[in-house]
Amino acid sequence: MDKTSHIPIKIEIEDIGEVRGELIRFLAPRTINVIMRSLPFEGRVALLTNQIYFRIPIKVGKEKAVLNVEKGTIAYWPMGSAFCIFFEKSQSFSAVNRIGKVVEKIDLFKDVVSGTKIRIEKV
For a FRET experiment, which of 36, 45, 79, 96 has its CA 20 to 30 Å from that of 61? Predict the structure, then answer.
């Protein structure tokens, strides 16, 4: 794996476990550059039917934004300034910038409830 285009991240879910993911630079290079400069992030998640999300302290506009995402997609939601993880194939409420994917233990997200603490950091 090329560490400049595929950047490994660790997603720690309070009282549940650790998930591995990767940011994929070509999906949204501007968005990923801003995120990389701001890592680590920590917050309390909100839960929608097929995704979790939490606000992060960055502002980036749409970049190759999409509505439909695959299971395991990691995205940035410009409208809500939020980091999103989709644990099922889904259609987003509004367009998101795809920034990566979950590569290990995606099923842990099914145990997450609103308010659960989450931390994202570069490996």
Answer: 45
pTM of the predicted protein model: 0.94
Count other C-beta atoms under 10 Å from residue 47's C-beta.
14
DSSP helix/strand/coil, 106: helix
Name the nearest CA neighbour of 32 among 80, 67, 83, 66. 83
Residue written as token pair 């997609």? 73
Residues with Cβ within 8 Å of 95's Cβ and at least 6 positions away in sequence, in order, are 62, 65, 66, 67, 78, 79
Mean pLDDT computed over 67-90: 95
What is the SS3 assignment for 26? Answer: helix
56's CB contacts (< 8 A; 6+ apart) are: 35, 38, 41, 43, 76, 81, 82, 83
The HSE-up count of residue 53 (CA atoms within 13 Å, CB side) is: 21
What per-residue confidence (pLDDT) applies to 63? 97
Could you tell me how far CA 58 lies from the centroid of its own chain? 13
**What domains can you pick out in the chain, each with its CATH number?**
6-122 (2.40.100.20)
Other beta carbons less than 10 A from residue 117's beta carbon: 14
